[in-house]
Specification:
Blueprint (H helix, E strand, L loop, with lengths): L22 E3 L2 E6 L3 E2 L2 E2 L8 E17 L5 E10 L7 E6 L12 E4 L4 H4 L4 E2 L8 E8 L6 E23 L5 H6 L15
Antiparallel strand pairs: 1-5, 2-5, 3-4, 5-11, 6-10, 6-11, 7-9, 7-11, 8-10
């Protein structure tokens, strides 16, 4: 159970454009609707809703900066889909205290990545085992003195890379002790269909 608030604005891209929260780096990036054709590729369907973010063609990215607290742990969760298994696709988090070229932050996979993190801790590899929506999830700790970071879904390849349902929340998963502070009760325990 978590009471974390998503710091990413328009993480489902359902505004239909990137003007609300997102920025791009170079080349073709934007929002695509289910069934829309990009070049010669027809995008099947968004993971949820009707829109997804996409980036394509060499060094390009979808990015969003958020305010954070030094020393806190944050969790990033999103879903990705590639038009083919593009090995260079990954997610990164950059220090962003007004410096577009701040250092990348080490990431700890919660859902195993495609192996990039094992070679370079600042990368979360987004190569899907099949050409279908795949979950990505990792955590990071904000370095001392850093109050703003930038999430980047990035690649250096010619595939279409789609992303949907992006969230970035503080890791405030409540423990049993936390729940006791609020006199929290749940019944029945264990529960099958209904939890009160």
């Amino acid at each position: 159970m978590s009471f974390g608030q998503n710091l990413i604005v328009n993480g489902g891209f359902e505004d239909g454009d990137l003007t609300n929260g997102w920025s791009t780096l170079s080349y073709a990036s934007g929002v695509v609707q289910s069934g829309e054709t990009l070049g010669s590729y027809t995008f099947a369907t968004a993971r949820t809703g009707i829109y997804s973010g996409f980036k394509q063609t060499w060094s390009s990215a979808l990015m969003q900066a958020v305010d954070v607290t030094p020393g806190e742990t944050y969790i990033v969760n999103f879903w990705f889909y590639n038009s083919w298994n593009s090995p260079a696709t990954m997610a990164k988090v950059r220090e962003f205290n007004g410096d577009a070229n701040g250092a990348f932050i080490n990431l700890t996979p919660i859902v195993a990545d495609s192996g990039a993190n094992g070679t370079n801790a600042t990368n979360y590899g987004c190569v899907a085992p099949s050409l279908d929506w795949t979950e990505a999830k990792f955590s990071f700790v904000v370095p001392a003195g850093i109050t703003r970071v930038k999430f980047q879904y990035w690649s250096d390849n010619t595939a279409y890379n789609f992303v949907d349902d992006v969230s970035l929340v503080i890791d405030d998963t409540m423990s049993i002790t936390d729940l006791q502070k609020f006199d929290f009760n749940a019944s029945p325990n264990p529960a099958k269909d209904v939890l009160k």
